[in-house]
Fold this sequence. Notes:
6-stranded mixed β-sheet, binds ligand BES
Amino acid sequence: MNFELTALPVVDLSSDIEVIIVVDKDTKHRFVQDKKLLKKAGFEANQDETCLLVSKNRLYVGAESLASTAIRTAAAAAVKVLKGTQYKSIKVATYTNKGCTYTLRAMIEGFILGAYSFETYKSKKKKNPLKHITVSLEEYSKLDIDIEKASEMIHKAQITADATNFTRDIVNTTPDDCYPEVMASIAESMAEDTGLACKVLKPKELRKEKMETLLAVARASRHAPRVIHLTHKPKNAKCVVTLVGKGLTYDSGGLSLKPADFMVTMKADKSGGSAVIGVMKAIAELDLPVEVHGFVGAVENMIGGDAYKPDDVLVAKNGKTIEVRNTDAEGRLVLADTLCYAQQEVKSDYLFDLATLTGACVVGVGNYTSGIMGNSDALKSFVVKEAKNAGELATALDFNPYLKKTIKSEIADICNVSNTRYGGAITAGQFLSEFIDKDHKDKWAHIDIAGPAFVEHAWGENPHGASGAGVRMMVKFIEKLATEDSHK
Length: 488
Ligand code: BES
Ligand code: ZN
Ligand code: ZN
């Protein structure tokens, strides 16, 4: 999809169809030329409600306000309607919240994110004829918008949304087509295209690095594990950010096998790692003045005679011993070693891990929201704020010393599961905390994306399946660091 920005008013533009966003049900606005027809069609301009007037070549969509979130999902809803049609080009005005062009960025993101569909496994692929969107600088509230600022926003929206769709593609790919080796080659070819550095560790190097817990999880799979390290190192870097992703290309649960219904969708257990690859792509393309490292622990958790077992005691890279009581709590084992490796390789100002870590997080906060955990309240709030600014839902979940006691082990330093059913998202976060060095304690946040990463229905600007959760949130966070003067 390509975008063109013009100073000409919308009426002077030619296109197959015009998209009009009806804000706050204001059908008296000058953009709404078909008030009577819309009334006849029963269009109420509720958020994301659409009305296609074929004979007028106009598509109306409701948005409850000029807030970015409302405009983003409205744009996505509009473009979804056009998916099954033959319209090739759209014209649209500029919508800003009191002149803030972030709303324009959100609209463009909405168009790209809403147009996404995953057709790889369909024998008859639906073509999306929509190719061209012309954006007029004619502003909803008649404000003057700087053309350079607007064009920069469109550029940023394209990079962020394309990276999100790139992540969606990786996550939606089946486990037989995307296993650790494939994930590494996806990262390598992306790095080659964008100029990032990429290092891939194979089992021999992983053994040398003493990543025995990661290797134990990987043992029963016919697909050997990989640890991926992507680097964006600009000369003018303001600070250093490290991202670590859980890349379970499949999670069968291992010997603590998942029930059939819970195993379906576990191809999406690589969402954290896929998000890290997507964020790195965006950061490279935006060429942000921040040094960013992306690590992915890519592993498949399977069963077999060689599988690691409940009752095993594993030694993590930092020397801590872990009693395994459930092989389905594998993500934290893979992350433990990958986090240790990442901290050994890079001293960062911010350290995040992204993971579909627990079903408990989904139970606690629902399908659409990520849980943000860590030792620093300030950092948790910072992440929640930037997630919301980026159009993602996130909420802080607080650690407490009572839950911490539930992951004690009688025979090892720590147990990989808690002794209580309750608070599972938090105890998983507290487990990870054991693998964070003193220097990184307050610089680290754990982001549990188990809910939003993969949802089996469309929601907002997200399609059925992979959403690319974490990508926009982290890109926005790093963009914020790039504009700040002091953050250390
Ligand atoms: N990958 C799952 C978590 C998950 C569940 C992600 C649902 C997305 C949707 C993780 O490895 C897991 O199985 N966790 C267990 C932990 C338990 C054994 C302590 C869980 O959440 O049940
Ligand atoms: Zn699991
Ligand atoms: Zn898992």
